[in-house]
Each structure stands twice: as C-alpha cells, then as structure tokens.
Specification:
Blueprint (H helix, E strand, L loop, with lengths): L1 H10 L8 E4 L4 E4 L3 H6 L2 E2 L6 H6 L3 H13 L2 E2 L1 H10 L10 H13 L14 H11 L3 H4 L10 H10 L6 H8 L16 H10 L1
Parallel strand pairs: 3-4
Antiparallel strand pairs: 1-2
Helix pairs in contact: 4-5, 4-6, 4-7, 6-10, 6-11, 7-9, 9-10
C-alpha cells in the first residue's frame, strides 16, 4: 500500500528529477517515473505523458522549470520546453501571485552560491536562467523590466557573469536592468516581480 501511494505521489510531481524516493533501510533510490535516467541524461522533463497538463495545474511550475534547469545544469526536454512556452502567459496574477514568482527569482539568484540546503553552487546559473526564460517567452511575462526599451540582453548577461558568489538575488537582478531604469513613485505596481518587490521595499 505504501509503495502504491508513493507511485501515485511520484506521478503527480512536477518533474521526474523531483519525483524520486529514497529508502533509508535499503539505501536504494526508488524511481517510478524515469527520473534517474533523466538525471543521467542531464534532462529536465515534466512528469506524465502530457507535460503541459501537469504544468498547467500550477503555472508557477514553468518558472521552477527554468530555475531547476539553471541550478542543476540540465537541458529542458523539448516537450517540456514547449509546454513552458505555451503556458508563459499564465504566469501572472490571478493565476500566479507576483510574490510566488519573486521567491523563485530569489532562489534562482541563490543558485550560484555554495549549497547549504538543496541545490546551488553553479556559477552562471542566474544568467543561464534568465537566458532560458527569455528564449521560452517567459521573461517578458515575469520580469518585463528586463525586456523593455533599452534592454540589452548581451550586456545584462555579461554583467551577471562578472558577479561572484554571495551576491543577493535583488542585486543580481539590478545588474541586469537596463541603464537608467526608473522604479517610479511608490505605489501599486503593474509590472513583474522585480517592480513589485522593489515597490514593497520602498513603502
């Protein structure tokens, strides 16, 4: 019964690499979804036969896909990448709260630091994540501040890759902003996670 419940739980997870179980008694990894093979292949794949359906259950999983891929150095499987691209417009309120997106951005920024818990310690992870988000059409939705007039993706990438470990995510994000970017007066924000977070810190 416990094994059957674990199998059901695994198939409801977001990605195969995030659906593995460890049996401390036998010291074996239990894999119901092909996650070990995907790790060996350095691939991030959505669980189930229809990745779009799984990601649509919570569109924030699209942002998590970008974070996991960047933090772990994985390639997003083409079917999963297509699902992320198709669901990118849904990663906005009310479907996804801006605060939840910002938490993922902060975690992505921390992926370059030495791991204390979970994954981390991969140089260039933040820049790689933003580049993947841009390629999949996700960046203009979650961080439009990086895609407006005056945005220079190459300059932003260069600036981010010059930063060493231990830099807070908000400063990494600031390094990627176009020159002369203006937050504007405090108050309700209609922009992405960066604007909402910055506005919160000024009020």
């Amino acid at each position: 019964a416990a094994l059957a419940a674990a199998a059901r739980d695994a198939r409801l997870r977001d990605f195969t690499v995030n659906a593995l179980f460890y049996d401390p008694a036998s010291r074996l990894v239990i894999d119901f979804v092909g996650g070990v093979a995907d790790i060996d292949a350095r691939t991030l794949r959505g669980c189930g036969a229809d990745p779009a359906a799984r990601l649509a259950e919570d569109p924030l999983r699209c942002v998590r896909a970008v974070r996991f891929a960047a933090a772990l150095g994985l390639d997003i499987h083409p079917d999963t990448a297509a699902a992320v691209a198709s669901l990118a417009p849904a990663c906005t309120p009310p479907a996804v709260a801006v605060e939840r997106v910002w938490r993922e951005v902060v975690k992505l920024g921390g992926a370059e630091d030495a791991p204390a818990a979970g994954v981390g310690g991969r140089p260039g992870a933040f820049a790689d994540g933003l580049a993947t988000a841009r390629r999949l059409g996700l960046l203009p939705v979650i961080l439009p501040e990086l895609c407006g007039d005056g945005a220079d993706p190459q300059a932003a990438d260069d600036a981010l890759r010059r930063l060493g470990p231990g830099v807070p995510a908000v400063l990494r994000l600031a390094a990627a902003l176009p020159a002369g970017w203006d937050l504007g007066p405090p108050g309700p924000r209609t922009g992405g996670a960066a604007a909402a977070s910055a506005a919160t810190s000024t009020t």
